[in-house]
Amino acid sequence: MLCPPSSYSNGQCVDPLTIVQYNLYYTNPNLTPFLDYLEKNEIDLVVLQETAPWHGDRFMELIDKYPYQFGGTPGLGYPSGQMIISKQPLNLKAQNTPAGHYMISGVWQSSKHRPVSLYTAHPPSPRSEQLWHERNALIGSLERLSDYSPYGDTLIIGDFNLSANTRRFTDAYQDYHTAPLQSWPREIKGLPIPSFSRIAIDHLWIRNTESPSLFICKREVLSQFSGSDHSAVVTYLSERQYKTNNK
After folding, report:
1. pLDDT single digits (tens) 61-72
2. Quick check: 46 and 23 in contact, CB under 8 A?
3. Residues near 167 by Cβ (< 8 Å), separated by ≥ 6?
């Protein structure tokens, strides 16, 4: 395997920012365990894919703890099934691609002194040649969009339907650091899939151009939730003093 099955660690996590990403699966019947996890744990940012409207209604139960939300409002809906909730302010917008897929971009104010450029997407699963081209085009469009990031830390997050065991993954976002974990498929039609048969497609990339900078200090698969063919993934970002050679 080119990536660890369930966890990654790179140094000590000191006062980390915590990000959870999860492809909920549109027909997921039971969000209660996941909502309980978000309620009981100190999560700073939650990035969701395949969010159905009734899922969004359930996340409104967490509005006191996560007062900043993107997705679910009239006129916006859930762009490509995406929803983002946060403890800190968000200033985001959705941009449509020629094929009808949405990229979300903007600023996550992770602290009063540290804005982070945030980009999310959910490229289509390449089940046909046309969708294969659309997925690759969206990945490239998001990379070009993130080149205009105005801040020292840039995050790209989402279910990219792109295995980490491919050349295309290696070639994408080369200025970024990532730590792929095997998160899909955890089940097919209700039948569990062993972890050694899973691949990494739920990704987080980070790029730094200033010091101090954020880095991935830890990443873990959260396997306790059912109802989706994806596992949720939690990422811890910590800060270190160093100057990168990234652009």
Report:
1. 999 999 999 999
2. no
3. none
Residue 44, token pair as written in the block: 């700073």
Q: Which residue has the tokens 């105005």?
A: 150
Query: Each residue of 135-175: pLDDT tens digit?
Result: 999 999 999 999 999 999 999 999 999 999 999 999 999 99
Q: What pTM value is reported for the model? A: 0.93
Residues 181 and 2: their CA atoms lie apart, in Å, by 9
DSSP H helical segments within the chain, as ranges? 32-40, 53-59, 129-146, 167-171
Inter-residue contact 173 to 145 (CB < 8 Å): no
Q: What pLDDT is attached to residue 12?
A: 84
- Any idea what DSSP says for residue 184? B
DSSP string of 59-74, one letter each residue: HGGGTTT--EEES-ST
Count of CB atoms situated within 10 Å of the CB of 39: 13
